[in-house]
Amino acid sequence: HAADAQMTDLMTITRFVLNEQSKHKQSRGDFTILLNHIVLGCKFVCSSVTKAGLAKLLGLAGEINVQGEDQKKLDVLSNEVFVKALISSGRTCILVSEENEDPIFVEPSQRGKYIVVFDPLDGSSNIDCGVSIGTIFGIYLVKDLNNPTVDDILQSGNNLLAAGYCMYGSSCTFVLSTGNGVNGFTLDPSLGEFILTNPNIKIPKKGKIYSVNEGNAKYWDEPTAKYVESCKYPQDGSPPKSLRYIGSMVADVHRTLLYGGIFMYPADKKSLSGKLRILYEVFPMSYLMEQAGGQAFTGKQRALDLVPKKVHDRSPIFLGSYDDVEQIKALYAASA
Ligand code: AHG
Ligand code: MN
Ligand code: MN
Ligand code: MN
């Protein structure tokens, strides 16, 4: 009857977070309300992504974002949904989105104490061919609610209160950490609720998969090139690793979290700081990896120790299984 008991004891994400937050005496439910609005945005994007092809939501929006990328219709739509959902929560004071050049300062009457940094739709290049995409977010506390400033955003990842992602794939999966480990929830479309399916996720200490865009090999620096070489032609007699690269960070990181291995977006001669954005891609995924027992490294330092100078700053990133990242750290240390 254990299964039946589990069936009737629905651990929704709201109930799970309320339980967690109730451990903080001063908690007044603000975080849970904020999270519920993020979850609402994800449910909307999940439903839009699922029927994008039918609802003529594929293709370009005809605009260019601050990244110099062609915005897809779903990029713009999901961004608007998240911005509106977060402001209407009444719990945010600053929003940073990949799709907005400047941070959004919420007007005082609707202001709350949280800052949310987010990538509303990650893996946009995969939208039109139906490959998994996602949403990535991080949550900080503002220093002074009466005076939110850009300095509240340009801070190290060590101040993150929580981070997570939602992956729109064969199922809609929400992965979250509020600082006490990582938990995975799956959307039950018949209930419209995210149900706890992967409690206390821990990444394997060592993996058999490496994940990188080999098409950039010509531009890699020596430590990256040496590391990838060691994945293909191991010197210690171990079998070569498998290469898995989806091109959506959320999907590549989710597989790495569950199966182990390493995900890399290295610096290269074309982009000296790599491609992934610190605030809403590198920090949230690095936070989750550390919470799951893995680690995240930039080629120079622990990723969460970075302090971005500008809102859309980028950084190289190597994250995943603890032992695998140790190897790349040793190669960079040797070349320093
Ligand atoms: P976004 O779609 O939010 O702009 O992010 C795309 C990122 C990330 O999802 C992925 O890991 C990376 O771009 C893939 O880049 P390449 O196509 O250069 O490998
Ligand atoms: Mn983009
Ligand atoms: Mn992205
Ligand atoms: Mn994006």
TrEMBL record:
EC number: 3.1.3.11
CDD domains assigned: FBPase (cd00354)
Domain Fructose-1-6-bisphosphatase class 1 C-terminal: from-to ranges: 203-332
GO terms of biological process kind: fructose 1,6-bisphosphate metabolic process; fructose 6-phosphate metabolic process; fructose metabolic process; gluconeogenesis; photosynthesis; sucrose biosynthetic process
Keywords: Carbohydrate metabolism, Cytoplasm, Hydrolase, Magnesium, Metal-binding
Domain Fructose-1-6-bisphosphatase class I N-terminal: 11-198
Coiled-coil ranges (or none): none
InterPro entries, sorted: FBPase_C_dom, FBPase_class-1, FBPase_N, FBPtase, Fructose_bisphosphatase_AS
Gene Ontology cellular-component annotations: cytosol
UniProt cofactor(s): Mg(2+)
Subcellular location: Cytoplasm
Main location: cytoplasm
One Gene Ontology term of the molecular function aspect: fructose 1,6-bisphosphate 1-phosphatase activity
Superkingdom as given in the UniProt entry: Eukaryota
Catalytic activity: beta-D-fructose 1,6-bisphosphate + H2O = beta-D-fructose 6-phosphate + phosphate
Protein family according to the UniProt entry: Belongs to the FBPase class 1 family.
Protein name: Fructose-1,6-bisphosphatase, cytosolic
Organism: Acacia crassicarpa
